[in-house]
Amino acid sequence: MKKLLNILITLCLIASVVGCWMIAGDSFRKVLDGAEVLAEGESFAQAEGKYISYEAAYPVGSYIEEYYSGDPDRVRTIGYAVYDEDRQAFLYIVVSDRENAGLKDLMWNLHLAVELRAGKDMAPFTAQGTVEPMGEEMLEHVFSALGESEVIGLYRDFQEDAVYREAYFGDEHGQVMEEMCRALDQNALQEDWYYLKTGVVNGLEMADIWICILAAGLSLLLAVVRVAGLFTGGRKPAGERALPVSGRMGEFYAVQREWVEEWCEYSLNRARRLAYLSVVCSIVILAVIGYFVKVPTQRIVSFYIPLGLLLGEIIGLMFWLGQKGQSKPDKILKKFSKKIVKKFPSSAGQEAFAEDILQAGKEWTFREKKKDSMLQGVVGSRYWICLKWNGLVTIVDAERVGKIETATISGQVRSGRVRVSYVSYVVRIFYRNAAPQKNCDEVFSFEKSDTMSRFMALVRKRDSGNIQIMAES
After folding, report:
1. SS3 at position 319
2. Which of 52, 93, 235, 381 sits at 20 to 30 Å (Cα–Cα) from 318?
3. What is the pLDDT of residue 240?
């Protein structure tokens, strides 16, 4: 079942790579190749589908294409009817409100008198995007922009007055405008109309392209890793095994390895589930957001879903890598070893400790497992030990214990804007001491009351009446 799930997840990753590449692959190749400059004599029809860099020198009319969703007063994109002197044709250029200033200023300068225009910046506006044929709706926008053009209006107002014509159309720019207006009056317009939307390649905005490619790249990387895992059967490469010790300590670590590996496998499976869930939830949430903000379906498919995939994979990868770093049996056992060696510096002391714990048997063990923690301990005849998933070790010398105090600790901690309640159970160990003690010598901490009860039952079973046991009032 696990292998079948791994194959299914791998196939989903491969499908996401193919899907994202089908959406943005062609556009990405064009972006990598860079924008072409139209060759001399090349028409807009010949440039259809190409990613080009175009210098717009004669914008003569504008039309508001789109407002921001939910804000009817805020313009998102504006279209400009731009005359091309060499091709004697119009190209409709759509720009975002951020890029609007260049074409707006240029169009304003074109309708000024020659004297005023001479001191203005008449440098063309550079637009980059793919040339696409117009639909009927956009063609109506072009005709509306031309019909409301102040430049065309000036020509028609002053065409019979030689003085005004000279004042407004007496320079190089004015002559081009005059030729354009004459062609319009003679209905000498092109049959095929094309538009260019800046920053858009084959209908995809640059953000859409990069999000799709990044999502495809990360999915491909994950798919390759998973395919390699399928072929190797999930086997880990042979490496140095932690704690190559012999004797009773070697047997002790072998026993602990069993439950440590069980915990690590459980934790990794939980991380996998969280990773898969993060991908699915991210895709769904982003798709729903796109739907409610009323973006076109194409944008949901080309941007919101790939963005959800990318974010979900990143979050899932963080879950997985974070848990994987904590779920290494050798690493945990080494932590145990450091604590035990610190407690028993001599080899003889360590062997005696291991002998006592191993002789206790399973009937003297206690265990606690929750979704994010696990511990295992043994109440031996001489030593009591509690080992935790994070490498923490508590060891008590039973011969020195004078008093045991049990307590329930509860409270609240702030997590963001909410308070979270918690309850834990502790067993405080006090060694015999001539002087009164305020602080305990060792503490066993549990998250379940049943675990504490099990531990205390084993302690009472071991105790011969020398230990004072009391509950905190």
Report:
1. helix
2. 235
3. 47
pLDDT digit string (tens) for 427-461? 999 998 767 677 889 999 999 999 999 999 999 99
pTM of full prediction above 0.70:
yes
Query: Which pLDDT band holds residue 5 (cuts at 50, 70, 90)?
Result: confident
Burial class for 422, CB neighbours closer than 10 Å (0-12, 13-18, 19+): exposed
For residue 40, which phi and psi values (nearest 5 degrees)?
A: -60, 130
Q: What does residue 434 show for φ and ψ, rounded to 5 degrees?
A: -65, -40
Residue 187 dihedral angles phi and psi, to the nearest 5°: 55, 30
pLDDT band at 112 (very low <50, low <70, confident <90, very high): confident
Pairing of strands 418-431, 442-446: antiparallel
The two structure tokens encoding residue 79: 């279209």
For residue 265, what are its two tokens?
């496998």
DSSP code for 66: E
Number of H helices, E strands in the chain: 14, 17
Residues sharing a CB contact under 8 Å with residue 405, sequence separation 6 or more, in sequence order:
427, 428, 430, 440, 470, 471, 472
Q: Which residue has the tokens 């941007």?
A: 303
| Tokens found for residue 264 | 């690590």
Lowest-confidence region among 242-251, 274-283, 350-359: 242-251
b/e map of 252-263 (b: 16 or more CB within 10 Å)?
bbebbbebbbeb
| Residue 419 β-bridge partners | 414
d(CA 115, CA 57): 19
- Please provide the DSSP assignment of 156-200 as one string: HHHTT-HHHHHHHHSSHHHHHHHHHHHHHHTT---SS-EEEETTE
Rounded Cα distance between 373 and 365, Å, is 17
Q: Which helix (H) or strand (E) holds 125?
A: strand 125-133
Sign of CA dihedral 203, 208, 210, 213: negative
Residue 286 CB: number of other CB atoms within 10 A?
A: 21
Residue 375: helix, strand or coil by DSSP?
Answer: strand
**Amino acid identity for residue 140 in this structure:** E
Contacts of 240 (CB under 8 A, 6+ apart): none
**Measured distance CA(208)–CA(178) in Å, rounded:** 41
Contact 360, 370 (CB under 8 A): no
SS3 readout for 190-252: CCCCEEEECCEECCEEHHHHHHHHHHHHHHHHHHHHHHHHHHHCCCCCCCCCCCCCCHHHHHH
